Amino acid sequence: MTSDQIAASPAASSPRPTESTVGELRACGHVQRSIKDEVRNNLLTALRAGVDPWPGIVGFETTVIPQLERALLAGHDVVMLGERGQGKTRLLRTLVGLLDEWTPVIAGAELDEHPFEPITPASIRRADELGDDLPITWKHRSQRYAEKLATPDTSVGDLVGDVDPMKVAQGRTLGDPETIHFGLIPRAHRGIVAINELPDLAERIQVAMLNVMEERDIQVRGYSLRLPLDVMLMASANPEDYTNRGRIITPLKDRFGAEIRTHYPLELDDEVAVIEQEADLVATVPSFITEILARFTRHVRDHPSIDQRSGVSARFAITGAETVAAAALHRAAIVGESSAVARVVDLSAVIEVLRGKVEFESGEEGRELEILEHLLRKATADTVRAHLAGIDMAALVAALESGDPIVTGDRVTATELLDSIPDSAAGVVDEVAARLEAGDPGERASALELALEGLFLARRIGKEADDSGQTVYG
Q1: How distant is the alpha carbon of residue 209 from its chain centre?
Q2: pLDDT tens, 86-111?
Q3: All domains in the chain, ordered by first residue
Q4: Alpha-carbon distance 424 to 314, whole Å?
């Protein structure tokens, strides 16, 4: 597992059980359950207790989650369809939390076989020889999730298994089933295996999964070896993959019990929540700056010049927030500010960074930056209307008209910006700061810039920006 997968699964909250043999396991009254029964029972327990089984999943509460829960209760394998950056993989990784925290496995076995039901020849032989003395160990649920990114070079051996030449070299014959090196799916026995971007698998590789999906066994190189696998198979795919890079073959699609469509956040609050949850920020980013980025992302998704088939990932807004925070930290380091707080002037840094995350329609070559800048201004104006409507800005406009320009930029500290405000406009600044809940100087300066940008976009004041990063409102 990757560190992300481990982080996504719940940490151990109860001690590892102490039973160490099959006999002790039977004596304690352990009940064997299949992986799908395990998930079903734990999901029902969580729902009855009012516990959220999907921590960290935002915006799917009334759409995707109910569908997924019904599929899991039905015992179905699931394929998640959705554009990039809709949280498909994140959702699949939360399934780990529906497994039993600890599960017994045969100690030293190549697969995670249940002590009551060995399935490989070696484990069956050991169970017959040792009986109740067969040693067992315990696995945490975080170790029972396997993930594979499907790539065109993935082989049948990677997923199912192949003959291991090293085992043959040790003296075993080619006809010995113990010469098989098992692939990812058999090694996920009694666990969850997720295959991301399933259509990228070559069609002949997808065929190798048919038996796993329906008969729950594997066949390798013509061996008469039937392993009754107990796995929950999940997959993700982009709908466009059906016609572009590849497709899920019809027999394999038919074997998935449920096909669930994901989506981008439907509400602005959900978009903001995703940014706040996922962005790794190195400076303070006021909530209204985050809201501008969320609105910007939604405008980009809706714009006719953007290729909507490829989607606009949630990572678009997350990267934007991280870039704005980095710009604030950069300014603070240069001008010597003790605390770094993002301001509206920092938003200009995101356009070049985010340009490569968007696919434009053909015919828009050369207009990419112009389109993104227009949509960012629109998002800023929407945020100003949402938060500053009703505030009388006349005093601030009058002060600027009287010939007292306000200078800001990536070399201007928050204190310098606030000190440049004419006394006649101080009351307006206080009201804006109160409306935006801006307390310290950095946040007040950011609130002031939002008000100034709003006045400029409403064509009540002028604005000039130069290549040195300085912006003059007046």
Answers
A1: 26
A2: 999 999 999 999 999 999 999 999 89
A3: 3-261 (3.40.50.300), 268-473 (no CATH)
A4: 43
